[in-house]
Amino acid sequence: MRDDYSVNGGLEGILFNKDFRFSEYTTYGLGGRAKGAFFPKTEEEAAKVFDFLISRGERFTVLGGGSNILASDGYFDGYVIGTKYLSGIKECNGYLSCLSGTTVAQLLKFCAEKGFGGYEYLAGIPATVGGLALMNGGIPEKHIAEDIISVRIFDNKFAELSNENCKFGNKHSIMCDINAIITGIKLSKNAVPREAVKENIQKYLFKRRLQPKGRSCGCVFKNPPKKSAGKLIDDAGLKGFKIGGAEISSSHANFIINNGGTANDVYRLIQTVKSRVFEFCGILLEEEVIYIGEFNDFDS
Description:
Number of helices: 7
């Protein structure tokens, strides 16, 4: 990684990786190369990169913790804006201000040290707060939308979206539908004894120990209304089903594990699951995983 991008556009000093590989930045450990990746450290740097790529008509994608992502095996003819270094938390009057690349682990460490509670349910999720806001992430009992006051975005100008204007839904928000980058979020601040926060974090980590081991993106499919995607997949007889090096977990059918396969193996398995579940019960599952790059359709 070099420390500047030597072109006109005011990007000097912004971290740039000209040999970016998605496999090194995603929890699946899969994906090919991109043209390159920018890693802004401030909201102002993120805005500069966004404007630079837009002004040149370049294709790009924003990448946080790399969970919930399936990047194709082929070359991505575009750039990546990585939020890895766009991190930091400030305690403000009545709320916590987090840059979008702040990880769940960083947020919980801050809360445990300062005595702020309510976020322990996120423990163990390998995500950034920006990614959680984008997808309204969380657990079945609670999602991040319940704690968000507002989200800061840049789409040629900075704007602050109130919780209501984010239009949070089932693993979705308005930010999924607009060409913008999330630069930060404001979270509610709730004072809780430090020891209680630490104990709750450990409780949630203990619960997550039962989740499937191996390289995955977490849950692949959204739960249909009043249904469990994992149970539907299990009932369709697909637990343990494999395509190439991709396998449906035998312990949780909504997890697909990468056992040395390719992104195309995972993609084909996802499409097969959708087809088989629809044949079984007439429900078309909707992916929670986000695709980056091109994938070939096929007949399952």
